[in-house]
Amino acid sequence: MRTFSIFSSLCLIGLVLFSSCTKEETPTPRPLTRVQVLSVPFSTRGSHTFFSFKDSTAVTVADSASAKWDFAIRFARIIVNSQSSGPGNAGVIMQDGIFSNITSAPLTGYSYDTTATRLAIKDGSWYDYNPRTHAFIPKAGKVFIFRTANGINYAKMQLLAVDYAPFTGPVPTTLLYKFEYTYQPGNGNSFQ
User: What is the pTM of this model?
Assistant: First the structure.
């Protein structure tokens, strides 16, 4: 009887110790919010400047035929990595609203670059052009919501400014696109 009692006590202690050990849970990645400046050549010809939300960096032209980038800019033209513009599954929705008030990405309703002239982001839809100062002024309240090129992650972005980089010649050589974005690195569509 005493052996049974010791065995029961040891089993009880083992059960308590085993139940107190919990499997470490992998934390859900938090959305990342950043302000970025992207240098874009002042030209309507040549290559686009490609950007990856995941890596928060410009992507080389050598990787332009991959899903390593989400959107690209050439002068005032913005393309997304989908269909006619790239092999990715990126899509975009341009939504009117306040950047901080958009707390999640829609699951459907995204536009794609279906042809070279039918782009998801239409020229002039996001900016006003001042012919006197030659300035591109982002329209207030325009928020881009992206499904990224991998088809899994989401980002929201607002353009803050488009400025000319300092130049000494007769015309500028570089545009500086300043934008804020929130990237969701996890599998969800929440920006909170």
Answer: 0.84
